[in-house]
Every structure is written in C-alpha cells, then in structure tokens.
Amino acid sequence: GELLRLRRGGAAAGEAAAAAGFPGAMLSEVLLVSAPGKVILHGEHAVVHGKVALAVSLNLRTFLRLQPHSNGKVDLNLPNIGIKRAWDVARLQSLDTSFLEQGDVTTPTSEQVEKLKEVAGLPDDCAVTERLAVLAFLYLYLSICRKQRALPSLDIVVWSELPPGAGLGSSAAYSVCLAAALLTVCEEIPNPLKDGDCVNRWTKEDLELINKWAFQGERMIHGNPSGVDNAVSTWGGALRYHQGKISSLKRSPALQILLTNTKVPRNTRALVAGVRNRLLKFPEIVAPLLTSIDAISLECERVLGEMGEAPAPEQYLVLEELIDMNQHHLNALGVGHASLDQLCQVTRARGLHSKLTGAGGGGCGITLLKPGLEQPEVEATKQALTSCGFDCLETSIGAPGVSIHSATSLDSRVQQALDGL
C-alpha cells in the first residue's frame, strides 16, 4: 500500500525521496534482478594444474527484490537461510566508513572484516553462512552507496533456486544480484528496463562494473576466489578459465540438462590434495590425463562455438563422447564416488550421458538432454534418479547472465518466495 500511495502522491514522493537521500524518481521503483548459478562443464581439477576449464551458466537463478522505503532502515531478508536483519540508516551513516576506501582492488583485510562485524552487530555464535551473507551485503551496500548524499533506506529480499554449498556458485549469484541492484538504485549505472519490457540486460560497460563489485562481495565470502563464478553469473553463457585469465565464449548455445545432486557431502580441499598426491606419485600416468582433460575442454569449446552458429545433431554426439571420456578421466584421478557411478549407470541405461561437475567425491552431476528427447522419457529418468535418493532438476546451461525483470513477468512461484509466502 505504501508504494501505491507514494506513486500517487508525486510531490510527496519527491520530498520523501529527497529526504531519504534519493534522486527524485527513485523512491517509487521496485527493482527485480536475477542472476544464474554455474557448473563446470569440463576441466575441473585439471584447472588447478594450469589447464583450461569451461564454466557455463546454470539457469537455476537467484532473485533479488529491492524496494526503496522511507522508514530510515535498511532491511535484508534471506528466506532460504532464515535470515532477517535490519540496520538503522542514520547509525550506519554516522560510522566512519573510510576503512572501506582501500577495499577497491585488494582482498578485504582482516581489519576491514572485523570492523564490518562490529557494524553488523552479529552475535558471536552466529552461523558461518549467515555471517558471510550479511558481511558481503554490508560491504557492498556501504561501499557502493556511500557516494550518495545520504545512505538509502531499502528493503531487500533475496531468494534462490540454487542449493548452497553444492559448488553451483550460489554465493556469486548473490553478490552479482546485490551489486547490480545497488549500482542501479544509486544511479551508478542506468536501469536498462524500458516500459513494456519483460526483461532486459545492462550494457557491456555496466556489466563490467557489476562484475568488479560482485568479485569484491565474493572476496568477503571466500577470501581468495578465482573470479570465475561471479564472471559466469554476470555474463551468462560459457567462459574459459586458464591460468587466471577469464574469457567469454562468443556464442554458446543453451543446452538442456538434468542437474543431479547426490547429496553426498564432500571435502573439496581433500579431493584437490588427493589429485596432487596422485600426480606426484605417478607423474607419467597422471600428467597425460590432465593434458587429455585439457584437450577435452578445447574440443568442447570448439564444438560449442560451431553450435552457436549452426547447431546440428552430430554435435550432440561429440558432446556426449566428451562427457563420457572426461568422467572416466576424473575417476582415474580418484575424484569419483559410488553415487556418481550410480548416476552414470541410471542415465546410460536410458541412452543418456552424465559426468560429475565440480570437486567430485559426491556433490553434483550433469546429464545432457538431446533435443527431440520425449518428455515422458525425461520424467522417467528423473524418477529413477530420485528413487536413488538424489535431488534431480531439469534446467539449462548457457543461460543469460544477470538480468532485470518487470514485476509482472516473474513467475508466481518466484513472486511468492520473494513475498515470503
């Protein structure tokens, strides 16, 4: 109701907006932003040893709704993890935030993190996920909005289709949504949504700024991230990552997949160490496997490029072969798991091809769905995987990156989740 009242009372809205430190038009605008997760298509583990990895956007999205309001508070609501926090804008305004200055290109210092913890007022026994989510938010809010005459009073809700901690880039999608919404509301970048649009995206330059800030948010959460997750979430499509350099594939097709979460917990650090030990123990055996995985990534990149221009059925056959070969290589590196073997068997019995994605040792796997596959067949496969105790979702990879939506265009499930129903 408040919103409609503000829309109708134009002059009053302008005054309220000015009082809240907003440019005139801003107070009535609700921003709805979404960003995709990511999966590694090829190159996991090999990438640690200087080989190419291909990361693709996963069309399970994180959604953010930002509503300016005039109650002098900034609210953060994260229904997936049951967090509701509010801060007094005047109190945040009065803090000395000069400690954020140096945070532009370096990893946030432990000193900055400590200061942010004080600002956040989090209890000592606060869960790690909650602490990191809140710190990333405050860091981005204070850093991006402090250029305003006054810090804006906002209500922010973030809800995600991505399971956290599954190696699917959920924290990056969160940081990307926050960066995009805060930069837009503070008019650092223009809102690309025009009247009558259902959805739109920012320009290349604006996306670069979003990505830069999202990387800072990821640093608050992960300390020293590679930057791949936030880049995939910002740009969408497919990226190659090689020795610290990230580049976007020109054209990559959206491919239908099943994403299966075995729900077997894994320890990424231990799996990475296991591969390193195997390489040291059997250099003549393991080094060629890594070289071979590198060649798989490059061949896949080439095929995706072709498909972007002129898709043909035989390209899917090549993608399937590459998936099978890479899965066997990953098993040879010692990062497989019985649950992932089971996923491969169940899907192979139906003529489908799967591989692990991410660290392995459990976690998630992807299954390529060829065009022309009948829906009952897909349903039967999902059913078979679910009866193994796995979570299975039908989705796509190569989806668009961070996007802005009109209120009417979001499906009701997303609307309800953001409304906390």
UniProtKB/TrEMBL annotation:
It catalyses: (R)-mevalonate + ATP = (R)-5-phosphomevalonate + ADP + H(+). Residues 321-374 form the GHMP kinase C-terminal domain. InterPro entries: GHMP_kinase_C_dom, GHMP_kinase_C_sf, GHMP_kinase_N_dom, GHMP_knse_ATP-bd_CS, Mev_gal_kin, Ribosomal_Su5_D2-typ_SF, Ribsml_uS5_D2-typ_fold_subgr. Its cofactor is Mg(2+). Coiled coil: none annotated. Its EC number is 2.7.1.36. It holds the Pfam family GHMP_kinases_C. It comes from the Eukaryota. GO terms for cellular component: peroxisome. The keyword Transferase applies. It is found in: Cytoplasm; Peroxisome. PROSITE patterns: GHMP_KINASES_ATP. Pathway: Isoprenoid biosynthesis; isopentenyl diphosphate biosynthesis via mevalonate pathway; isopentenyl diphosphate from (R)-mevalonate: step 1/3. Catalyzes the phosphorylation of mevalonate to mevalonate 5-phosphate, a key step in isoprenoid and cholesterol biosynthesis. This is Mevalonate kinase.
